[in-house]
Amino acid sequence: MKTFHASIDVMPHDNLLDPQGKAVSGSMKNLDLPEITNVRIGKHITLQVEAKDKKAAEAKVDQACKKLLANMVMEKYSFTVTEG
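^ thats the sequence. predicted structure below, dont judge the formating
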């Protein structure tokens, strides 16, 4: 078995309202940063997985995202897996 590291980004679907991102976007004007708009806020997750190869590690990470780490109704996810 090898150890792999996964880096996962979970974000709200583009067509859904992001109240947290909207609040931050609105605050940018108060911070004299009006050029920053359309902020979207999500989660960044890192983890380690033991697997026989990269393909198996990616399958495990995908399964974890679908079953627990992302709410598939409201969120989308992407990830990278590296050996190490």
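The two ends are 12 Å apart (CA to CA).
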